[in-house]
Amino acid sequence: MKPAILSVAAKSGTGKTTLVVKLISELKQRGYRVGAVKHDGHGFSMDKEGKDSWRFTEAGSDITMVTSRDQIAMIRQNSDRQEPPLAETIARYFNDVDIVITEGFKKNTLPKIEVHRRECRSELLYRGENHDPALLAVASDEPLNLDVPVFDLNDAHGLCDLIEARLLTP
Fold first, then answer.
1. Mean pLDDT across the stretch 65-87?
2. What is the CATH number of the domain that holds 86?
3. For 87-117, how does the pLDDT look when each residue is reduced to its tens digit (9 = 90+)?
4. What whole-number distance in Å separates Cα of residue 9 and Cα of residue 16?
5. What whole-number distance in Å separates Cα of residue 141 and Cα of residue 84?
6. What pLDDT is recorded for position 43?
7. Does residue 159 belong to any structural domain of this protein?
8. Domain presence at residue 103
9. Residue 144 lies in a domain
10. Which range marks the domain in which residue 10 is found?
11. Is 29 a domain residue?
């Protein structure tokens, strides 16, 4: 399956974004093309009031795109007010990358790494009562005795070795 998809999940404030940034950087150093999808349950705006693209959107444009030599950005109005399925989003926008790392999609069946921080939560999301067979590993700030590998929160190299072995090697 192209691209490979990995979900990084945990409760808010545990360090998901920090880990995702480290994984992206390490995978890029290894020569992979990487995409990222962040779930935002609160709604967001990427446009800035007063900018031309904002004005286009405010006027009613359903899709506004800004292009330059270095980047392309698209703002697409979600007219049905339903978040599109993650698989549909990846299929539509990420067909030219090797791996997509998602953050914040806690309720999925994708291969995942859970971030665990002792001070934020004592129990894991994907072990115990909510056993998820798609859990590949846990990145933690404390040792844990689990049926999946446990990595230090800062061990992006080790986690990427696992990601390569489990998701990126044909």
1. 83
2. 3.40.50.300
3. 888 998 899 999 999 998 888 899 999 999 9
4. 7
5. 34
6. 59
7. yes
8. yes
9. yes
10. 4-43+81-168
11. yes
